TrEMBL record:
<dbReference type="GO" id="GO:0016301">
    <property type="term" value="F:kinase activity"/>
</dbReference>
<keyword id="KW-0547">Nucleotide-binding</keyword>
<feature type="domain" description="7,8-dihydro-6-hydroxymethylpterin-pyrophosphokinase">
    <location>
        <begin position="8"/>
        <end position="136"/>
    </location>
</feature>
<dbReference type="Pfam" id="PF01288">
    <property type="entry name" value="HPPK"/>
</dbReference>
<keyword id="KW-0067">ATP-binding</keyword>
<keyword id="KW-0808">Transferase</keyword>
<dbReference type="GO" id="GO:0005524">
    <property type="term" value="F:ATP binding"/>
</dbReference>
<comment type="function">
    <text>Catalyzes the transfer of pyrophosphate from adenosine triphosphate (ATP) to 6-hydroxymethyl-7,8-dihydropterin, an enzymatic step in folate biosynthesis pathway.</text>
</comment>
<dbReference type="GO" id="GO:0046656">
    <property type="term" value="P:folic acid biosynthetic process"/>
</dbReference>
<comment type="pathway">
    <text>Cofactor biosynthesis; tetrahydrofolate biosynthesis; 2-amino-4-hydroxy-6-hydroxymethyl-7,8-dihydropteridine diphosphate from 7,8-dihydroneopterin triphosphate: step 4/4.</text>
</comment>
<keyword id="KW-0418">Kinase</keyword>
<keyword id="KW-0289">Folate biosynthesis</keyword>
<dbReference type="GO" id="GO:0046654">
    <property type="term" value="P:tetrahydrofolate biosynthetic process"/>
</dbReference>
<protein>
    <recommendedName>
        <fullName>2-amino-4-hydroxy-6-hydroxymethyldihydropteridine pyrophosphokinase</fullName>
        <ecNumber>2.7.6.3</ecNumber>
    </recommendedName>
</protein>
<comment type="similarity">
    <text>Belongs to the HPPK family.</text>
</comment>
<dbReference type="InterPro" id="IPR035907">
    <property type="entry name" value="Hppk_sf"/>
</dbReference>
<dbReference type="GO" id="GO:0003848">
    <property type="term" value="F:2-amino-4-hydroxy-6-hydroxymethyldihydropteridine diphosphokinase activity"/>
</dbReference>
Amino acid sequence: MSFNKVTLLLGTNLGDKIKNIENALSRLQSIGCVIEKKTKILNNPPVEFRSSNNFCNIAVLIRTELSPIQLLKSIKEIEREMGRTNDSRDLGGYIDRIIDIDIVMYNGLKFQSKKLEIPHRKNLYERDFSIRLIHQLSI
């Protein structure tokens, strides 16, 4: 049995944001992800789009046996089950969402496809809030 160490970033700006994050973390555990570490929740304004709804974001370090593609499929299913009906890649831009789960790092893997980029360049290098959260995981 081989476990992969993965950094995820979760965000929500609709509904009961704390409950949305807790629900998503519970669902990740139900698919076999072991949460090793998580940051405090960070409240911040939307990035790259306008909205009156601020975000709650959290970074988590998990262990999983799932491959990157299997994990992505499971994450997309969790997002759908929680009520997310669209994908920003399909829309060509960002909108309010009940949950968003991004794979930021997966072991030391570098991978790119139409649906997945590892490491997640924007979250790792360009977005201040995510850089702060990811840094908290390494402390």
